[in-house]
Write a structure and sequence with these properties.
This protein is mainly α and about 375 residues long. Helix content is about 80%, strand content about 0%. The chain is built from 15 helices and no strands. The mean pLDDT is about 85.
Length: about 375
């Protein structure tokens, strides 16, 4: 097997590891909530520990990758991230949970920046865009982790036992795959580790920001929208979210082929149009089948935006790949952090259809910003 294919499999393994760890934690949130007797407000506040750790580590991640290379950082982060899982399973107080989530967020972001830098290196070997397929593997790992979590709950295993098993699998992946990662990242001469992002990187960050707000809206509010507005039979309350996730995962495996054929700019423009159109359909026609169709379009729209933005950022001529990714991620993750509370505030002041209508505007901004961005 050619070395570049072995490298692609190794990097894919790290993406699978990241998705598996995150979804494993998410699958046991209800159990940990009950154990600590948290109400909805308290749980929402405690869960901010994860994005706080993520945002705190963003500049550190870019610096470490630029200074030491993505391979050692990815290896270290891929050990830290799953090793934090069992700690989450052992917490017996709120402050312990917040502290562990902070570490979990830091480890997850170090892994995110370093493995995406590795993915950019693999793209250079392939001489075409393959980033979206990596994120598709992350999505598949998310489905796998949710299924495993359901199985563990059915077997009556404690979260600590569940997380130990997942951690052991993750460490085995690191042991096998880390030796096949790219040893040296793309050279960027004597460029400074910290530098002001150029206009193109700022535009990419804005695109990521808008997309992550749309993603966050689907993750956190699609079920609520179906329950409160669409009001389908109880067994179909999750139909919108399932439709969104299905086309999101599928779109990521098609995104590379489409970007290679039509270019990143056109795909991002089309993605923005699909996202805005899907949300508007679900809002203007609040019935079961139109809403499902709308959420299918939203999933297809957001599927490849962040992977293609990362791919474009990694080709920056002004910053090293790790620092460029960290800069774009910093702007993007602000949307993921503040988007869902913003939707809730607007929904409380008016209604959920109005708040999702505002999110549809952000989908159209993706298309506008893509048209104004220069891609290498």
């Amino acid at each position: 097997m050619p070395p570049y294919r072995i490298n692609r499999i190794a990097v894919s393994s790290f993406f699978f590891l990241a998705g598996l760890c995150f979804s494993s934690w998410a699958s046991r949130i209800p159990d940990i909530r009950l154990r600590l007797h948290l109400d909805n407000a308290a749980l929402g506040a405690v869960l901010l520990g994860l994005p706080a750790g993520l945002l705190t580590s963003l500049p550190l991640a870019g610096w470490l990758v630029a200074k030491f290379g993505s391979r050692p950082v990815a290896t270290l982060a891929a050990i830290l991230y799953p090793c934090t899982l069992p700690l989450l399973g052992l917490v017996d107080s709120i402050w312990q949970l917040v502290a562990c989530l902070f570490l979990f967020g830091m480890g997850g972001n170090l892994l995110n920046i370093s493995m995406n830098t590795q993915a950019i290196g693999t793209e250079l070997l392939y001489k075409r865009t393959i980033m979206a397929s990596y994120h598709g593997i992350w999505s598949l790992a998310g489905f796998s982790g949710a299924a495993i979590g359901t199985l563990m709950i059915g077997l009556g295993l404690h979260p600590f036992q569940h997380f130990l098993i997942v951690g052991a699998v993750a460490l085995l992946i690191v042991l096998i795959a880390s030796r096949h990662l790219i040893k040296e990242d793309a050279a960027h001469g004597d460029q400074p580790i910290f530098a002001k992002p150029d206009r193109s990187l700022i535009n990419l960050g804005i695109i990521a920001f808008c997309c992550m707000i749309c993603e966050g809206a689907m993750f956190d509010w699609s079920g609520v929208y179906f329950q409160k507005v669409i009001q389908p039979p109880k067994g179909l309350v999750a139909a919108g979210y399932t439709a969104f996730m299905a086309t999101m995962a599928t779109g990521r495996f098609l995104g590379d082929w489409m970007a290679t054929r039509w270019g990143i700019k056109k795909i991002l423009q089309g993605s923005g149009v699909l996202t805005a159109s899907g949300l508007l359909i679900a809002i203007l026609f609040p019935w079961l089948f139109p809403a499902i169709a709308g959420f299918l379009l939203v999933g297809a729209g957001v599927s490849s935006v962040v992977p293609l933005v990362y791919s474009a950022a990694g080709r920056s001529k002004t910053l090293s790949p790790g620092v460029a990714l960290a800069a774009v991620s910093t702007i993007g993750y602000l949307g993921f952090l503040f988007g869902p509370p913003f939707i809730g505030f607007i929904a409380q002041a008016s209604n959920l259809r109005v708040s999702l209508g505002l999110i549809a505007i952000l989908g159209s901004i993706i298309a506008v910003m893509a048209a104004r961005t220069k891609f290498e």
